[in-house]
Amino acid sequence: MTFTIERSQIEGLVRSAIRGSLAASSAPQSASKTLAGFQPPGWVDGKPNLRVSISARHVHLTDEHVEMLFGAGSKLEPDKDLYQDGFYAAKQTVMVVGPRRRMLPNVRVLGPTRPFSQVELALTDSISLGIDAPVRHSGHVHDTPGCVLVGPAGTVKLDQGVIRAARHVHMNFADADHYGVKNSDKMQLVVKSKECSVIFDDVLVRADEAAKLEVHIDTDEGNACNLEAAMEILLRKDDCGCQKK
């Protein structure tokens, strides 16, 4: 027996096959396939890789202040990439001048530029300058002291913006899930060193999608715990649910 198929039927079958193929190719993959081989930023071997960095005194500048300090048309020139992607230590430095002309020369500028200028110091730096700099988180410069910045092409007088940077931890959302915390929570950093182990409280969580797990402490804090010779470092919630490095 011979079967005949009308042309319209053939065209219908072809259209159906094409629609099915397109639907299959555009359908979301299963989670196991999509996430196969994927690791969040900074993770190693499927788990967070904790880094603790000493944040030395530095300056953040606006585009306008870069030109005032280094000349018209000047831009920050990257010198060394920082651990967090997109951030760098610039080639440029400035002198920070406090009351009674006390000064810190060659203070590094960090990039990229920001909507406001800010100077971040350790306690010993602020004492040296004669500035009573409060402990603040970055960007919280309201009612803070000012200073004068001196560059090769000019000066900038800041009416506010000098702070002692509060300790904090950058992390992505996968890191936050791992530790059971969320943005703006507080954590503890435990540094175990011979004869000078220290527990740092009030480590602010700063979580976003792209950050890599990194705690920032200042030079005084790093020296106090002898960070360079640390034998063990723990980052944990305030309820002491510890997670090892």
UniProtKB/TrEMBL annotation:
The membrane-spanning stretches of this chain are none
Q: What is this protein called?
A: Phosphate propanoyltransferase
Which family does the UniProt entry place this protein in? Belongs to the PduL family.
Q: Which GO terms describe its cellular component?
A: bacterial microcompartment
The answer to keyword Acyltransferase applying to this record is: yes
Q: Would the keyword Lipid biosynthesis be found if you checked this record's keyword annotation?
A: no
Keywords tagged on the record? Acyltransferase, Bacterial microcompartment, Metal-binding, Transferase, Zinc
Organism domain of life? Bacteria
For this protein, what is the EC number?
2.3.1.222
Required cofactor(s): Zn(2+)
InterPro entries (alphabetical): PTAC
The cross-references to PANTHER family, in alphabetical order and at most eight, read: PHOSPHATE PROPANOYLTRANSFERASE
Q: Where's it found, cell-wise?
A: Bacterial microcompartment
Its lineage opens with: Bacteria, Pseudomonadati, Planctomycetota, Planctomycetia, Pirellulales
Q: Give the species this sequence originates from.
A: Novipirellula artificiosorum
Q: Which GO terms describe its molecular function?
A: acyltransferase activity, transferring groups other than amino-acyl groups; metal ion binding
Looking up Pfam families in the UniProt record yields: PTAC
